From TrEMBL, chain A:
It comes from Bifidobacterium vespertilionis. It is a multi-pass membrane protein. The keyword Amino-acid biosynthesis does not apply. The keyword Transport applies. Pfam families: BPD_transp_1. Belongs to the binding-protein-dependent transport system permease family. HisMQ subfamily. GO terms for cellular component: ATP-binding cassette (ABC) transporter complex. GO terms for molecular function: transmembrane transporter activity. PANTHER family: AMINO-ACID ABC TRANSPORTER PERMEASE PROTEIN YHDX-RELATED, MEMBRANE COMPONENT OF AMINO ACID ABC TRANSPORTER. This is ABC transporter permease subunit. Residues 17-214 form the ABC transmembrane type-1 domain.
TrEMBL record, chain B:
One of its GO terms (molecular function) is transmembrane transporter activity. This is Amino acid ABC transporter permease. The keyword Transmembrane helix applies. GO terms for biological process: amino acid transport. The keyword Metal-binding does not apply. The chain crosses the membrane at residues 31-53, 90-111, 118-140, 152-173, 247-270.
Length: 225, 363
């Protein structure tokens, strides 16, 4: 039992979870911005932009996140010498955020597109008959309703992103949960089950409120038609 | 063929939500915008290639010295193909295990017997919430301590994938049974089956067929997640390409080749899952279209897709569905009974099933 209590004093478990939460929040922000840009391109009347967005989404949807992360560190940083900062930790952190953001942006775009499908044609027709241009009708009429219609898939994407932030281990972010768990098990082999349960329950505790909030918000915000 | 036509039609309607069929002026505008955007995208591509050919430090990334070792026969025979075989081996075993796990726990959650129901629910919700990588690291270390030397990482990858994807399949089974029309259960009970028998011989078989497309989508997730195995030293495609890259100092090129292989496999699988629903729909009363995303939202009691919920029509005052379509599509040339005749006229294309009934005039 004393060994179990020592774990908390010896290792900073909360700090590791904080790293994952930071990774998640930054990637959520950037992937949301990217996803909105992509979905606007995807529904625009210009074929080349539509094609580019479709290719981007198909590419990142069918690509393992691990290979993107490894590519960010060994390819972009190791071989192309591209770096965000001279400090290794900060550099790897932002490389991981970049990888997570481009990967998640494809799923954000798909979620928003499924939200656009819930907007009836009449809304767009009404917007056009008021004389709104493509960008005006997209930003004032369609996308706000699409956001309300895509709360559930966006919430699922956020949950997946939080879980995917553990893959930052592949991008050499050594302070996050899965790397810390690996080290802790290495030095405390007899406590392996309790160490796993600490981290697993940590994730369950973080994810259940997001799921409940998503279900509540998607019921509350859905536009009844 | 018919499926192709309808999907093309669906695509064109969803693409044209925001703009009318453009006139001559609009077409010219779009044409010019198309050219400008195309030039910008090509310019971006050229800039990236130029940067790759002349990096500020290091050597030309497009040279054959780097691409050659990543593409020649030796690389394929010694690295990519053995790695790909390992990746496929793990995915095939994992998907078979996940289906078994999912069907067992999905049925467990549907049973009325509460201890089974709650134990299955807790296990499924736990496995869905914990990141796959944590499972894999835990199992890998655990198997190594138990004395498995060579296969520890392989079985860790397989069991990690089974636990997560199996719990997603369990949710698919549950929502598949929930999406069946109520009549299926009622008919089975009317034939004298008990609730368990009705579940096993009527509802679950149809739910399994209905969820096949979603299962193929899940197979893509399994294939992609085997790459996590490289973190726990499983020699899959990603790990092998890293080894190749560190041998010839062409990591970027080796990873690009591996990425293309992953992409081809999962792209073909996702195309298969898109073409499957039409064929499966004939054999089930459930909805054989894959959900936009597999249900991840934890503790969602219904798993009802949001689009369907949004399309339910709300009647703020309550009451039954209106008897008459209240849109006027007939002619104005009415001289008699003009107060009520618009209710007898016309057919509302938005509600084709609502036939205008003969209006009963108030006495």
């Amino acid at each position: 039992m004393s060994g179990f209590a020592d774990l908390f004093s010896q290792y900073d478990i909360l700090a590791a979870f904080l790293v994952n939460i930071e990774l998640t929040l930054w990637s959520a922000l950037f992937s949301l911005i990217l996803g909105v840009i992509l979905v606007t391109m995807r529904i625009s009347p210009v074929p080349s932009l539509r094609g580019f967005a479709a290719a981007w989404v198909e590419f990142f949807k069918n690509m393992p996140l691990t290979i993107i992360m490894v590519f960010m560190v060994l390819g972009v940083f190791g071989q192309l010498k591209f770096q965000f900062s001279d400090n290794f930790d900060t550099n790897f952190f932002w490389l991981a955020v970049t990888g997570l953001s481009v990967y998640t942006s494809a799923f954000v775009c798909e979620s928003l597109r499924s939200g656009i499908n819930t907007v009836p044609l009449g809304q767009a027709e009404a917007a056009r008959s008021l004389g709104l241009s493509f960008f005006q009708s997209a930003s004032i009429v369609i996308l706000p309703q699409a956001f309300r219609g895509s709360v559930a898939p966006l919430g699922n994407t956020l949950i997946a992103l939080l879980k995917n932030s553990t893959v930052a281990a592949a991008a050499s972010v050594a302070t996050e949960t899965s790397s810390l768990m690996s080290t802790m098990i290495e030095y405390n082999a007899n406590l392996i089950v309790s160490i796993f349960l600490i981290f697993a329950i940590g994730y369950v505790v973080m994810i259940i409120p997001i799921g409940l909030l998503t279900t509540y918000l998607s019921n509350k915000l859905a536009v009844r038609r | 063929m018919a499926n192709k036509a309808t999907s093309a039609k669906g695509a064109s309607t969803s693409a044209s939500v925001l703009f009318d069929e453009p006139g001559p002026k609009g077409r010219r505008k779009i044409f010019i915008a198309n050219i400008i955007a195309g030039l910008l995208l090509i310019g971006l591509l050229v800039a990236v290639l130029h940067r790759l050919a002349n990096p500020p430090q290091g050597q030309n990334q497009l040279s054959w010295e780097l691409w050659g070792p990543a593409l020649d026969g030796e690389a394929w025979i010694d690295f990519y193909l053995p790695g790909l075989a390992k990746t496929l081996e793990a995915s095939v075993i994992a998907i078979i295990g996940a289906v078994i796990f999912g069907v067992v726990f999905g049925i467990g959650r549907l049973l009325e017997f509460w201890p089974v129901k709650y134990v299955a629910a807790v296990i499924v919700e736990f496995c869905r919430a914990v990141p796959v990588l944590l499972f894999m690291i835990f199992l890998w270390r655990g198997f190594s301590f138990m004395g498995m030397s060579d296969d520890a990482s392989f079985w860790a990858v397989v069991w990690g994938l089974i636990l997560y994807n199996g719990s997603v399949v369990a949710e698919l089974v549950r929502s598949g049974v929930g999406n069946l029309p109520k009549g299926q259960h009622e008919a089975a009970v009317a034939l004298g089956m008990g609730p368990v028998r009705a579940l096993m011989s009527v509802e679950v078989p149809q739910a399994l067929i209905a969820m096949l497309p979603a299962m193929i989508t899940q197979l893509v997730v399994v294939l992609k997640d085997t790459a996590l195995g490289s973190i726990i030293m499983y020699t899959d495609l990603l790990q092998e390409s890293r080894r190749l890259g560190s041998m010839y100092f062409n990591m970027l090129q080796a990873l690009v080749v591996a990425a293309v292989i992953y992409f081809i496999f999962s792209y073909l699988l996702s195309k298969l899952s898109e073409s499957l629903p039409a064929r499966m729909q004939r054999r089930t009363m459930g909805i054989a279209k894959p959900p936009v995303q597999a249900p991840i939202a934890i503790m969602d009691p219904s798993n009802v897709p949001l689009q369907e919920r949004a399309q339910e029509r709300e009647r703020p005052q309550g009451g039954t569905e209106p008897l008459y379509p209240d849109h006027y599509h007939g002619s104005n040339a009415v001289t008699e009974d003009w107060r009520t005749s618009h209710l007898e006229h016309g057919h509302d294309p938005k509600h084709p099933d609502m036939k205008p009934k003969l209006f009963q005039r108030p006495e």
